[in-house]
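Progress note, project year one: complex with manganese (II) ion.
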Amino acid sequence: MKILLGAHMSIAGGVDKAVERAAKIGCTTFQLFTKNSNQWKATPLNDNVIQNYKRLIKLTKLQPVIAHDSYLINLCAKDKSILKKSRDAFIDELLRCEILGINYLNFHPGSHMGTGEDDGIKLVAESLNIIHEKTKGLKVKSMIETTAGQGTSIGYRFEQIRKIIDLVEDKKRLAVCVDTCHIFAAGYDFRTEKSYLKTFEEFDQIIGLKYLKAFHLNDSKKGLGERVDRHEHIGKGKIGLNGFRFIMNDERFQNIPKILETPKGEDMKEDIINMRKLKSLVKNLN
Ligand code: MN
Ligand code: MN
Ligand code: ZN
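Model obtained:
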């Protein structure tokens, strides 16, 4: 059985270097930024880098690949100029993904900054409709990440993600990513078999499992329902190993990429340890 497991990789030196790093530590899938995540401006991808990236993906068979969008992007920004910048930057990132053959562009729905959750949800959907309209025919999907519900961020209830999906015209362009740290901090428990089944039953009833295309596997420094987003190494946080055991052994999720976003140094030894830990939870692994 092949396990789709990887981590967020640094793009220091170019996006092609992320593929090398992922392969080096034994990832079978990975996540990256396609540009500096703290800047609006992005220099166009250089042809040599694109060619080398594609060559390495073919060679390593690392797939699917997920891009995480810039942290500056807020698709429900109250400030009109930031909203425009966010939409333009998101379009640019979708195009970068398309050039590289990246499957998903993962993003947080956004923060309404006081306008209210319902207005925020409507604005996110409106942004996505404009963005999709301007990027017709792209293969890369816009992947909504579940959030911890910190501050005025939306997307911490499955119902909110459902509302966004309902308002987006081209639903084929959408996917959803479950971040384990975020859903736990948002109040969804999955540490016991009962709570695990209930949480994913709820996900299926409200959002639909067909939308679930990725997991971010992070333990949480903060407790259930605290709505604070602090990632911890697998098994070292408030979730503990059991919750991850259920996900790793759930046949429904076998072909869904699972990505670590836990703290690490340049040698990535923390990723190696976390991946080893996650694999050790899998029953019948030869
Ligand atoms: Mn994220
Ligand atoms: Mn995440
Ligand atoms: Zn997080």
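The pocket of manganese (II) ion (ligand 2) is lined by residues 145, 179, 216, 261 (CB under 6 Å).
The domain at 5-280 is CATH 3.20.20.150 (TIM Barrel).
No further modelling is planned for this target in the current period.
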